[in-house]
Design goal:
A middle domain of Talin 1; 275 residues; 12 helices; two-stranded antiparallel sheet; single chain; binds copper (II) ion; mainly alpha
């Protein structure tokens, strides 16, 4: 808890100091005020949705309804995955909500392993809600805490702008590899959410980027579309088919485009004067 407060305070101070020292000359910072406040709204909508969806997900677990909980698992996670660069600022909650078994000494058997993926393991592997009654309560407490903390947060502009690339790196590192949703194989839902979260940031910044580098916008728009076209093939009933149905050819296309997007989007901070 102490570490967390120090961390956010440091970020807030760094942000305030940046505003103060750059003063009136800080053209990029001023340009970013509009996109930043719009992004804050987007994140607030997502954390509110996360709380609502988690309430229903947890209710299904408390009722012992494995099938219902399974059907709610992937859609509930999406609002979290869309805003992951901001959620990750609260590393204690991010760990409690979204860690993987590999992060713990005793893996799935470790009592410190909590959150969505512990529950995913119970639903798909243990086929029971019994082992995760307490973890379900904890998850709801944690997402409510996340919502409250994010609502109080002054968003650091470099985190928001850097978030477009960070989300693509997340896709490359944990979704294409199929590491994240290994028990449920709902990886494509998370992929979509990370992708949408990245595109949201990019879209908000696009007018600023277009002024500086129109060719970048043309190229990046095409890469976003290429990824979306592949994802579209796997959409079904408002969601996605299992990750195992992704063909090797499509996996290669996704991987190539996502890595290009991650690399290109990582130049945005410099382009907008935040480095
Ligand atoms: Cu995640």
């Amino acid at each position: 808890m102490v570490a967390f407060h120090l961390k956010t305070t440091a970020l807030a101070l760094a942000f305030a100091a940046g505003m103060a020292t750059q003063g009136m000359a800080a053209e990029p910072t001023l340009d970013l005020v509009g996109p930043l406040s719009e992004y804050k709204l987007y994140v607030a909508e997502n954390t509110a949705q996360l709380v609502t969806d988690t309430e229903a997900f947890v209710a299904a677990i408390k009722a012992g309804d494995v099938e219902k909980a399974k059907s709610l698992f992937a859609p509930t996670r999406m609002s979290y995955e869309r805003i992951e660069p901001i959620a990750e600022l609260f590393s204690d909650l991010d760990g409690a909500i979204d860690a993987r078994a590999d992060d713990y000494e005793k893996a799935e058997a470790d009592e410190a392993f909590t959150g969505f993926h512990r529950i995913e393991y119970a639903l798909w592997v243990e086929s029971s809600t019994d082992p995760v009654q307490g973890y379900a309560d904890q998850l709801l407490t944690d997402v409510k805490a996340l919502d409250a903390r994010i609502n109080e947060l002054t968003f650091p502009p470099e985190v928001v702008v850097g978030g477009a690339a960070a989300l693509m790196e997340e896709v490359a590192a944990t979704k294409i590899s199929g590491e994240e949703d290994r028990y449920s194989r709902t990886d494509l839902w998370d992929f979509d959410a990370n992708f949408a979260g990245s595109e949201k940031i990019y879209d908000l910044l696009k007018p600023l980027i277009a002024e500086k580098d129109p060719a970048f916008v043309t190229k990046t728009d095409a890469n976003f579309k290429a990824v979306d076209d592949v994802l579209a093939k796997y959409r079904k009933d408002g969601g996605y088919v299992s990750y195992v149905e992704l063909t090797d050819a499509d996996r290669t296309v996704l991987s190539t485009r996502v890595n290009t997007l991650a690399e290109d989007l990582s130049t945005l901070r410099g382009m907008l004067g935040l480095n």
